[in-house]
Amino acid sequence: MDDSWSTSGMKSVSKLFVMFVAIFIFVLSNSATFVSAEESSCVSCHTNLKKLVEITRDIEASKPKVEKPTESKGEG
Amino acid sequence: MAPLEPYEKVQIDTDFLDEDEDVHGQVSCEKCHGGNPESNDYQTAHEGVVRDPTYPDPSKACGECHAIDDESGHPKITGKNKTNLHITLTPFKNKIYLRANPDSCVRDKIDDAMGTNCSACHSSCGQCHVSRPTSVGSGFIDGHLFQKTPPVETNCTSCHGSRVGKEFHGENEGIPADVHHTKHEMACKACHTGDEMHGSGMSKEPFDRYGVANRAKCEDCHKMKGSYKAENDMQGKDLVHPAHAIHQGKVSCQVCHSMPYKNCYSCHVGKDKSGAPYFETAPSKMDFKIGLNPKVTEDRPEKYVIVRHVPVSPGLFDFYVKDALTNMDKAPTWKFATPHNIQLKTPQNETCLSCHGNNKLFLTKKDAESWEVKANKDVFVPLKPAPPERHNWLEQPELHLKKVDCLTCHNPSLQSPIRDCQQCHAKDNVLLTTAGGTPEYSLTNWSFTNKELIEKGDYVVGSNRIPALDIIGILLIILTFAGCTTHGILRFISRRRK
């Protein structure tokens, strides 16, 4: 009697645990943060320091060379 | 303010994506900024990107939540955008148009010049709460995290630095920082509230920034005696100094409490070969000038105000068009000012005569160049004769001015200043009840209340009539007589016995 009760109890707990994990994953995968972080190239790039340094360096290098602009004199 | 590296300007902090840190991070990037979030190539990803989606119209980016006061506690902000002078720059344009040549072709060129050289100095929701203003190089303040209060260094004094910032922080040589900064550690927000910064919300924009209904005022915290307690009164202390009673409504607070401040002269704007705008101004000067209030209003009733020279000159737009400002006489070049270097004690408020009769403090024709004399005619102060001359009806004006405290005669509790000699030089004179403008002191008091005034070198009527001294003197006389009488009687008795 005791053994069968403990076995069925264990099964219920296991089922609950599996359901909880499933719900947790479902909620997490649908959260805005997760979606934007995973799917948006904006976020993946603008939070990646290495990528940003490389890209901004490329952008600076690709800019046409211009003469040093005339500096303003005095206080604005 | 240290400049940012290019990558620092656009690096997003991952905290921004955390709802608990910043709710704005839950809105997808493209919803505000546009672009293509699915592309991994930075060029195609940035096609159609709007760097600042809050300028000029923030209703789309911010208005969904910040348009009306609602139960969620979002303040009504975007609805006031059209009266937000940080965005519209209307007062600045108004002053230029006032001086401008009315010819439409010239006006167009002025607009072009202003568009190139001046209009970039605006702000926006984003340029206060997310990034540094574009005019000072832009770049996120803190990884795109929204700042409820814009930081002073990156977002206030980065634009308002040359004059206000340096004054407030004491960065002008020999001039102390504003007492609100040093003593009370107040930042800009303490006076310039979000309500003021977001615009007045009035139906019509004010002509200049001093016309903003909800602008910061000294009286918001410092209430004058007898005035109603301001709604947000933070000090709650009556300003009971007699000088306030005398000058209230006639002299602006800054006239007595500000230190010398920066004045700018002659600005010329242009474009270099690459089309980049530049400007040149003449060296600025630290000075202090009291002028007549050119525009007395109910809100600004004072006759005497502080005036600061603005960097305008007839040749301002010469690069773009000659004779652009043919109406320079229409607006003063010395304009109403509120320097941000307030001190309790200043050189001009040390004594009454530090200001009264000190002609170098007042703006006169001598301070203006020939082309600006007419423009400032309503600001120049007609100098009055020196105090000794104005008091020459007295027997000894110099002696009175040297020895008698001004407030003795110009007592604010009297209906008019004392002009009758008998009012002071008589037995029952008014000075026996008041002295030195300090009504709590009574000269008939038993304690030596005159001591303080006499030590200052003031002449105090009745100072030799201290009741205690009188009584001691009378007692000495009585005792002398009593002693002599006793001595005589004793000698008389002793002789009779012999």
What is the gist of this entry?
The complex is a heterodimer of chains A (76) and B (498). Chain A has 76 residues and is mainly alpha-helical. Chain A is built from four helices and no strands.
Question: Characteristics of this structure?
Answer:
heterodimer, A: 76 residues, mainly alpha, 4 helices, B: 498 residues, three-stranded antiparallel beta sheet, 29% helix
Could you explain the architecture of this structure?
The complex is a heterodimer of chains A (76) and B (498). With 76 residues, chain A is an all-alpha fold. Chain A has helices at residues 2-30, 32-39, 41-46, 49-62. Chain A is 75% helix and 0% strand. Chain A is rod-shaped. The N and C termini of chain A lie far apart (90 Å). By secondary structure, chain B is mainly alpha-helical. Chain B has helices spanning 6-10, 29-33, 42-45, 63-66, 85-88, 90-99, 104-117, 125-129, 152-155, 161-169, 179-182, 188-191, 194-197, 242-247, 253-257, 352-355, 387-390, 397-403, 406-409, 421-424, 451-455, 467-497, and strands at residues 261-271, 277-287, 290-292, 304-309, 334-336. In chain B, the strands form 2 sheets. Chain B has a 3-stranded antiparallel β-sheet. In chain B, strands 1-2 form a two-stranded antiparallel ribbon. The model of chain B is unreliable at 435-444 (pLDDT under 50). The A-B interface holds A 32-33, 36-37, 39-43, 45-47, 49, 52-53, 55-57, 59-60, 66-67, 69-76 and B 5-7, 10-14, 17-19, 25-26, 28-30, 33, 35, 37-40, 42, 45, 144, 162-163, 262, 264, 267, 270, 272-274, 276, 278-284, 311.
